[in-house]
Amino acid sequence: METPKKGFWFEPIEPELQNSEFIAVESKGFLAEASARFLRNKRAVFGLAILVFFAALALFGPFLVPYSYDGQSPAFVNAPPSAAHWLGADKFGRDLFVRLCYGARISLFIGFASALINLVIGCVLGGISGYAGGKVDLIIMRAVDIIYAVPSMLYVILIMMALGANTKSILIGICIPGWIGMARQVRGQIISLKQQEFSMAALVLGAGDGRILFKHLMINAIGPIIVQLTFLVPQAIFTEAFLSFVGVGISAPLASWGSMCQSAREFITLYPLQMLWPTLSISLTIFSLNFLGEGIGDALNPRSK
Q1: Alpha-carbon distance 235 to 118, whole Å?
Q2: Residue 160 in contact with residue 167, Cβ under 8 Å?
Q3: What is the pLDDT of residue 28?
Q4: Average pLDDT for the chain
Q5: Which residues of 233-256 are buried (b: 16+ CB within 10 A; e: fewer)?
Q6: In whole angstroms, what is the distance from residue 111 CA to residue 108 CA?
């Protein structure tokens, strides 16, 4: 029996050739690359840090001082910042720090809760409109036009007149027209994506319309959807602050950043710090959310490398 010629059998590779096909860069998944791009964006990381700070302030801040948001102390009326009252006290002797913390709870809750509600409504209606097309698309888009024709602030004021000045009425008023932008964004993305090859392949393989829409098309449109979501939050926070500032928002003795600004307005020349704290909080929160949305948009866009 002849011995096979050299080359017909696998042989150990030479030591100097073992690393000839070494891959220098480790392969990363989409989420890992997006996270790395996000962390390289200094403004986005700064925005996330500020948002986490205010969230922690809202959750744990009231436990750091022995005051309640409505507790009055005549001895500390319009008191400046001190060891007893870190940010001072207002015209009723109420501690500004604890009121700022409770204001963060209300403002952030309204912002994120309304954004999540608008996300669900906008994604469902916008997705159905873009995927179904025809009469369904026509009916949904005409309903959008009718709702959009009425000023959004009017919805909020009318709801508050009917249900009273509280968190629930503001939330309902913001959500009535708030999903329109999300629905239009999702509709445009779905119309573009449903003509792609992967969508046609899923249809040929027998996938149902619901699975194609929510398991394939909506997932591929997640980037623009998340970016749109981050811009809904500051819009809702600013709306609540504006309503409270003009006196039709959160009613006393509850504290929101807008109501704190409204309460400090008459003393702005004598005690400007009372206006500074809630105004600074609103500004930093809105800036951080805008930076966060910009960073998420760049991180989820593969062309931004």
Answers
A1: 12
A2: no
A3: 66
A4: 82
A5: bbbbbbbbbbbbbeebbbeeebbb
A6: 5
CATH of region 33-304, choose from 2.60.40.60, 3.90.1150.10, 3.80.10.10, 1.10.3720.10: 1.10.3720.10
Percent of the chain predicted with pLDDT > 90: 10
Torsion of CA 178, 182, 188, 194, to 10 degrees: -130
DSSP helix/strand/coil, 221: coil
Residues facing residue 95 across a β-bridge: 89
Nearest CA among 121, 142, 105 for reference residue 232: 121
Q: Output the CA angle 293-188-141, nearest 5 degrees.
A: 115
Give residues with Cβ within 8 angstroms of 153, minimum separation 6: 239
- The number of beta carbons lying within 10 Å of the beta carbon of residue 284 is 15
Structure tokens at 61: 């801040």
Mean pLDDT value of segment 263-275: 84
Mean pLDDT of 126-134: 87
How do the domains of the chain map onto residue ranges?
33-304
CB distance 102 to 255 below 8 Å? yes
